[in-house]
Amino acid sequence: MGIVVQKYGGSSLGDAGRIKEVARRIVESKKAGYDVVVAVSAMGDTTDDLLDLAKGVSPLPPAREMDMLLTAGERISMALVAMAISDLGFTARSFTGSQAGVITDSAHGRAKIIDVTPGRISAAIADGHIVIVAGFQGVSQDTKEITTLGRGGTDTTAVALAAALGADYCEIFTDVDGVFTADPRIVPTARRLERVSYEEMLEMAASGAKILHLRCVEYARRYDMPVHVRSSFSHKEGTWITPEQPGEEAMEQAIIAGVAHDRSEAKITVVGVPDKVGEAARIFEALAATEVNIDMVVQNVSAAATGLTDISFTLPRADGQTAMSALARIQDEVGYDKLLYDDRIGKVSLIGAGMRSHPGITAKFFAALASAGVNIEMISTSEIRISVIVNEVQVDEAVRATHTAFELDAAEVEAVVYGGTGR
Amino acid sequence: MGIVVQKYGGSSLGDAGRIKEVARRIVESKKAGYDVVVAVSAMGDTTDDLLDLAKGVSPLPPAREMDMLLTAGERISMALVAMAISDLGFTARSFTGSQAGVITDSAHGRAKIIDVTPGRISAAIADGHIVIVAGFQGVSQDTKEITTLGRGGTDTTAVALAAALGADYCEIFTDVDGVFTADPRIVPTARRLERVSYEEMLEMAASGAKILHLRCVEYARRYDMPVHVRSSFSHKEGTWITPEQPGEEAMEQAIIAGVAHDRSEAKITVVGVPDKVGEAARIFEALAATEVNIDMVVQNVSAAATGLTDISFTLPRADGQTAMSALARIQDEVGYDKLLYDDRIGKVSLIGAGMRSHPGITAKFFAALASAGVNIEMISTSEIRISVIVNEVQVDEAVRATHTAFELDAAEVEAVVYGGTGR
């Protein structure tokens, strides 16, 4: 039999009891005949505790030392999981990201994996061991410094290991039952998806669904690695994320995969921009220099009488102040009138690979929003997604109305959410 | 100017406030013109907390994973110290034992340093950084596994780094003011020693003085590295541990360095051993096979009538059960009568390089014990030490009487003890 890679997040490793439960589940897969490699996050609140310690000694700690500090969290959890497995009569070997051959670039706090050289893992597997790897961390190629991968890092570690080891599949154990047609906290009748394509999952992640991080799904798609998202608190089947298979019936039937929402963005409007070649470029160059990620952009048709236009865009709320300052500095140069800042907005997105071949989806979406009395402020689309910006207080209503209009509601409530952020 | 290596223990790094205080002290040395390399232990109770976590998942965790777990403690403290230094406007780089080139054998939990290859440390020094190294840990030469050095490990790390870097000296910061002529908790008039030789410090460490671990002093002696033991809670001068210099007046004057005591041993007596060649060897071979460390050994003159003798020896109380079991297994083979076990004993030792050339020390020591009404159960001596085993309840009285008899008492109390074990 082949190799399976599993990932367990912080809420699945909350205390000694949970760690022993996770060990039993790992051993089940080993007994089933698989070679098992496991990526773990730090236990429960460990990362927050370490961040508090850092805050106690320095308001602005160096990123290199921050990575050194935070990587202690996975070191603790991986050793404990290995001990718990050994207590069940199986042998386990834990490895740091560096030992496991997770090679990254040098960007502390948000490093990207550039290679995985799993020689020690393969040797440990050959010796019959279960392998536990510290998620979220690696070692930089040039400087041999310890790095961390940023949010969702352990998911990415798991999929990268699965790809490098040629695993049969990668299981992401989390605190929810899988990927749902909408957030079950907003739509209690949301249905668990049995399957979803990489492309759909990417659009959902980018649209605010927090179940998997964007980079993890990108990695899975690049290496065609099947990912099974499921709960560590039950033995229920979760959601499989797999390549899109055009001929397959299940995929064909599902025109819409789900409705995602995101309350983390803000909107900035640059009012009264002279409608000349190069003005928009100057604005977005100034923003790019601050490394702020811009999401949606809308430019009004200019009023012929004034020769002025307005440019609106959305961005993470956390970057709002940075972007406003950068724009203020170029006001004289660009000659715009004023800036408007609005963080009382939300984004609602409809995602489905089927919308490519089914016209009328947009009309149906907008009609559903209109009947719910929801006003649309901005619109953006991709081949398999339609997103709208609405007033923040109308996000829940917009999600529910859309979910119902596309007949996604389940006959009965099956969603079980165990709290936590599913990081 | 040269390099100075400093060591800070867990009690010196108890919380954020202490860490900032330690950072200020490190920066003082840097400002004084030294290149500074620092070895740190885990913060306060971190190691105990990690041990509790391990106990929670497995009653008998594998040693390899235990080392992986415990080394997270120094990783946390070294990153925090580096951050606190950076907050003072200086740059620091923290390194794990492995990164610092601390190469050990493969004995998890009690590894010995076999080499130090401090290439990354030297490079960081050359770049102007203060270097923080995780104490107590290394990487095994053959298997590249993470190891720990056992009790007092960080002291040994500090001295080993000092030797490898050719440092001017090594400062061991702890929670007491230095090495005293006796434990100030028992003898309030004990005096701080300004200087003590490696040989005396070795005997004191072996005799129960907990201020420095044996292996650290051995390392310092082998490389002739001056060690300054001092308090991290004050700026007072501490005790210098240096080579014995025969011509030097201060050394000549101090006949006796101090009185040490040890309550961690037990005594086993093998009663009625046939007085034949090879019987004693068989007994101690059986003990050696269990890796129990034997300290003092006494064999009675055999009674001519019976041809039987008694053999008594002392050993760490923690190993008592192991030794008793090993001896019970060879009773038929050796043909001894019975075993007696006594853990109500204590060891009192008088240490001083001067006793080589001053006869009568033993007589004076025994007379002091006799006038205090202390019965001597066993005696052992080295060139610069006399140790006796007494009843545990008489240890304090024996230490005080000896301290006074050799005129070690200070005119006034100067000892300041800040609690903790000074590990």
UniProtKB/TrEMBL annotation, chains A, B:
The family database entries (InterPro entries) matched by this protein are listed as:
AceGlu_kinase-like_sf (IPR036393), ACT-like_dom_sf (IPR045865), ACT_Aspartokinase (IPR054352), ACT_dom (IPR002912), AKii-LysC-BS (IPR041740), Asp/Glu/Uridylate_kinase (IPR001048), Asp_kin_monofn (IPR005260), Asp_kinase (IPR001341)
Where along the chain is ATP bound?
K7, Y8, G9, G10, T174, D175, R185
Domain ACT stretches: 268-344, 350-423
Instruction: Provide the residue positions that the database annotates as binding substrate.
Output: T47, E74
The catalytic activity, as recorded, is:
L-aspartate + ATP = 4-phospho-L-aspartate + ADP
| Protein family membership | Belongs to the aspartokinase family.
Which Gene Ontology terms of cellular component type are present?
cytosol
Extract the PANTHER family matched here: ASPARTATE KINASE, ASPARTOKINASE
Protein name (Swiss-Prot/TrEMBL):
Aspartokinase
Which top-rank group of organisms is this from?
Answer: Bacteria
The record's keywords, sorted A to Z, are: Amino-acid biosynthesis, ATP-binding, Diaminopimelate biosynthesis, Kinase, Lysine biosynthesis, Nucleotide-binding, Transferase
Q: What is its EC number?
A: 2.7.2.4
- Which Gene Ontology molecular function entries are recorded, alphabetically? aspartate kinase activity; ATP binding
Which Gene Ontology biological process is one annotated for this entry?
lysine biosynthetic process via diaminopimelate
Q: Which class of enzymes does this protein belong to?
A: transferase
